[in-house]
Amino acid sequence: MSTIDPDARGRAIQETLRPIALAASVVAFVVGPVLALIANLTPEARDWVGAVAGYLIWLFTTVGVGLFVFYTVRNLSIFGSVAWLMGMLASGGIIAIQYDDAAGHPATWATVTFAVAGVVLYGLRLERAALSKSTLLAGVTTNATVTRSAVSGTYNSVQIWHVTLKFTDQAGTTRYLRTHLLGAGGWAPGDIVPIRYDPTHPGSRRRIVVYPDTPGGSAFVR
User: Fold this and answer.
1) 10 Å Cβ neighbour count for 52?
2) Which of 23, 154, 175, 200 makes a 20 to 30 Å CA pair with 142?
3) Is the pLDDT reported for residue 139 higher than 80?
């Protein structure tokens, strides 16, 4: 037992680590280009980077930073997570381009594909964040009712619940929403979950925000 609120302490640690995670992310993204530049300095440097050692530096740096960011920054969106992965693959691909002598230059095309996919996915993440912010500012709050719930996994030893929510919009139309909620208490049919939606686009899933401080739980998993 502790006299200190563990949740408050966890939030304080998380806020302290966020700037470090941001700086580490920048380092992870530039590892590939830096190694690619080193490969062009001398023949010896090119041989060294092209050997297993050069790729191991990139691999351990990006994987290490990725795990650090994952455990530091909570509620990463699926778009943001996959965009991160595509960016890391593009970063490593910049190294591979230096040795892309095969017909058709597959490493070059793969790197370009990863980079474009990363940009597109991150753009979708920014769009979704903008829509959520717009809903929070100008949306309508109502109560949704849980019609179905089941445990779909765990996140840091806390249960992830797959729930179906039912709510009625301002026009009197009954709508249904499937989403995931994170919480040890869980949800059962009949429970009330507050949500906020855009009355001009009540059927848009991207314009619905499920409030995190819902009974039985602590956070909404996007």
Assistant:
1) 8
2) 154
3) yes
